[in-house]
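Dear support,

I submitted the protein below through the web form. The confirmation email said the job was done, but the results page showed an empty box. After a refresh the structure appeared. I'm attaching both so you can tell me whether what I see now is the final result or a partial one.
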Amino acid sequence: MKILFAGPYPPVRDGIGEFTWMLAQELQRGGHEVRVVVPYPVPGLPAEVLGSLRTAGRERARLSRALAGWNPDVVHVQFAIAGFGIRTIALIRWLDRIRQDSGVPVVVTMHEPTRESASLPLLGRAAQRAIASRSDHFIVHTPAARSAVVAELGIPAGKVSLTPLPDARFRGGPAIGADLRARFGLAGARVLLSFGFIHVDKGLDDLIDALSILRDSAPAVLDGVRVVIAGDVRPRHGAFRVMGARDRRYLAGLIRRIGRGGLRDLIVITGYVPDEDVAGWFGLADAVVLPYREAEQSGVERLARSAGVPVLASSAIGPVEPAAAGRWRFPPRAPARLAETIRDFLTTADAQTPRPEPAGSDLAPVAAATLDLYRLAAGPEAAKVQDVS
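What the results page shows now:
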């Protein structure tokens, strides 16, 4: 089968792109052909990328020629407004041309639709409805997302399938934890890791407040501990740079908060994390902390699970298995409860405590289920697809 993905893709740092890359790799191992169309051109795109979305110009003409020569069997859009930004308009027009010129079935994975509807209520809903009207079948990764697209977008329940998210894979060469410790002055400290793009929904201000509470109430608990915030603000394009500016203001506020709380000796902010460092950070972390305020799922949690790292997570991201096992859970927007959870972990877990077994990353069931959806979307029974979770 010839499968054309549309969405973010490495080397762009994006959780959706990482998932698409993993799925593409698995499909290619199964003998299928994969090509990709990305929202924005960037240096270093791999050979399977045919081009980027443009509403006009030479890039659009080149992409049209490439698609006509390759003739895919299915188009699979990995959609989130954060991933496409202003190119969402180009995506809608491109899907119109695809359907008019070839009639190729279009499958769309809606990533975190409830979060986008909440943060961009008018724009988010309008964009999702426009994509939905040009699609044959839909994939979501959580029950909450399925309920949302059925209720809010009016998509028939039989056209929405729930497929599992696999555990993540680390790309790039393995980083050495000792190098990262030396580079960031961590020495032999116990490390609590917060990883990923910096955004208000991640609840990092709650983490900083929790550490202030611990510094005041139980300072000995933090002896020999460093908290690493590994990440930077997500790059934005076009009109969505306004959202990037908001995130940069949020980051500046976090830095001021750290200073006011006297926590500069405790917290390290690394900035952008290159691919070759990702595995190293998870390898040296004693635990990953996810104080999220809003989320449907967490790619960071899946990375931690793949690496066998304990997870301290808010209940905003739903069940976290098996790493947190219910014990190291706390409500979102509750710094005092987060402080209790961190204290519990630091005082009960030590070097002798077994880490969770790495979960691996078996994509074969996900790829097989997705292929079934491709085949069904192309036939008359597409509306009767059942859940494959």
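Response: this is the final, complete result; the empty box was a page-load delay. Confidence is low (pLDDT under 50) at residues 321-325, 381-389.
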